[in-house]
Design brief:
By secondary structure, the protein is an alpha+beta fold. It folds into 3 domains: about 5-220, PmbA/TldD fold (2-Layer Sandwich), CATH 3.30.2290.10; about 225-245 and about 355-445, no CATH class; about 250-350, no CATH class. About 20% of the residues lie in helices and about 35% in strands. The protein has helices at about 5-25, 80-90, 125-140, 210-220, 240-255, 255-260, 320-325, 360-365, 415-420, and strands at about 30-45, 45-65, 70-75, 145-165, 170-185, 190-200, 230-240, 280-285, 305-310, 315, 335-340, 340-345, 350, 365-375, 385-395, 400-410, 420, 430-435, 435-445. The strands form 4 sheets. The chain has a 6-stranded antiparallel β-sheet with strand order 3-2-1-4-5-6. Strands 7-14-15-16-19 form a 5-stranded mixed β-barrel. A 5-stranded mixed β-sheet has the order 10-9-8-13-18, covered by helices on one side. Strand 5 (about 170-185) and strand 6 (about 190-200) form a beta hairpin. Helix 1 (about 5-25) packs across helix 2 (about 80-90) and helix 3 runs parallel beside helix 4.
Length: about 450
């Protein structure tokens, strides 16, 4: 099985694509050529359930004819000339876009740093199968676990080349290794489920399969025999699995596209206090081995760490070149390729640690909820109203007392962000990460 990606061949294809687009009549253009490979193995009840293998090449081209633009994508290299002809023909009949632009030449990256995103370890099918089986077995060994929902082991690698008609060409590769498991405890209508997983850019950093499976089993046992609680306003601690989602919602609210479309409840609050004084939200694309790291953005601009929220004050929107121009600003190098288009998006986004431990937060609560599961998508991004089905554990007199389910939590995200207090247990497990977060006075709907 190949253990590297020949970027030189991708660079040749990208250069050819740019040349063909200019020959077809484009004034300017940029393109991405990507080559990906992946392998995934899943097991259930000690037996192989599924094996997936994929290999693909992808070509994404954006052309400009004056202020008219079009984007196309393909997954074969056979008809690049036809692809370019179609893109130019589409652009010429498209309406003018006053904000369409390539990244300014002076902002294009001169050097591409090595962020150690690629592990060339050769994935052996037998070893991946063993990992998945060990993960499942460890979960089933936990006393009280009644059934497995399965376990999986995965691997993938991708090489990217970005080229522009202004002379930029850059490339990098990344890899992913993953392992996950989900377990069931209880019987009939009393069944509960829970899971654990890990994903890393390097195999040596991946949590052991047995620890992943065991934690999935231990989590589901704690959920047995849940209760409902009385409705009211209570403090809620968002477990790290849920606080990352809350941070992702904030990222969506400060995305430049949402601001330009006036679909964000934070659109009028640039420079204002949106979080408590001790909250800092950082986006750092240059973290070594980071799951959201990228040495250049999707338009070829050099990336750097940004404080989107500093001491609770909103400092910047998430911007690519086009969105920034529409808002009268400059790109902060957060462009990503999405299909054949470009959108602004965060990289390694996280809330800095606070000074209080999660245990101290729990100990400070007389009655409240430790939230580790939400259900549904009850978020209105225009006005900030937030309501979701929820589950977790009830806190009484500073201690975890019993599991709870069939409840809802509700509030408004402006108040939620203003009141959230971070614990000191930040862990980098995804591209978006946050420590446990304490939010005072959320509405809990129970019995």
């Amino acid at each position: 099985m190949p253990t590297s990606i020949r970027l030189s061949s991708l660079e040749d294809q990208a250069a050819e694509l740019v040349g063909l687009a200019l020959k077809a009549g484009a004034d300017h253009c940029d393109c991405v050529v990507a080559r990906s490979q992946s392998l995934g193995i899943s097991v259930r009840d000690g037996k192989s359930e599924d094996t997936d293998r994929s290999e693909s090449d992808a070509f994404s081209l954006r052309v400009f004819c004056g202020k008219r633009t079009a984007s196309v994508a393909a997954n074969q290299a056979d008809n690049l000339s036809t692809l370019c002809d179609r893109a130019v023909a589409m652009a010429k009949v498209s309406p003018e876009d006053p904000f369409a632009m390539l990244a300014p030449a002076e902002r294009l990256a001169k050097n591409i740093p090595d962020l150690d995103l690629f592990d060339s370890s050769e994935p052996k099918i037998a070893a991946m199968m063993t990992s998945a089986l060990e993960c499942e077995a460890a979960g089933l060994e936990v006393k009280g676990v009644s059934k497995s929902m399965g376990a999986s082991s995965g691997w993938g690698m991708t090489g990217f080349v970005l080229a522009t008609s202004t002379g930029f060409s850059g490339s990098y590769s990344l890899s992913r290794f993953s392992c996950s498991s989900a377990m069931i405890a209880g019987e009939g209508t009393s069944m509960q489920r829970d899971y654990d997983y890990d994903t890393k850019t390097h195999l040596e950093d991946l949590n052991s399969p047995r620890s992943i499976g065991r934690l999935a089993g231990e989590r589901v046992i704690k959920r047995l025999n849940p209760r409902q609680v009385t409705s009211g306003a209570f403090p809620v601690i968002f477990d790290r699995r849920q606080s990352a989602g809350l941070l992702g919602t904030l990222a969506g609210a400060i995305n430049g596209t949402s601001i330009a479309r006036k679909t964000s409840f934070l659109r009028e609050l640039m420079g204002e206090q949106i979080c408590a004084n001790d909250v800092n939200i950082i986006c750092d694309p240059l973290i070594n081995r980071g799951l959201g790291s990228r040495p250049v953005d999707g338009e070829g601009i050099e990336t750097a760490a940004i404080g989107f929220v500093e001491n609770g004050i909103l400092k910047q929107w998430v911007l690519d070149c086009s969105t920034a121009q529409e808002l009268g600003l400059s790109s902060n190098a957060r462009a990503v390729r999405s299909g054949s288009g470009i959108t602004p998006s965060t990289t390694n986004l996280y809330i800095e640690n606070g000074d209080t431990s999660r245990e101290e937060m729990i100990n400070s609560i007389e009655n409240g909820l430790y939230l580790d599961e939400t259900i549904g998508h009850g978020i209105n991004m225009v006005n900030g109203n937030y309501s979701k089905g929820a589950g977790g554990f009830w806190i009484e007199n500073g201690q975890i007392a019993f599991p709870v389910s069939e409840i809802t939590i509700a509030g408004n995200l402006r108040e939620i962000f203003r009141s959230m207090a971070p614990a000191n247990d930040l862990e980098f497990r995804n591209a978006t990460n946050a420590p446990s977060l304490l939010v005072e006075g959320m509405t809990i709907g129970g019995k």
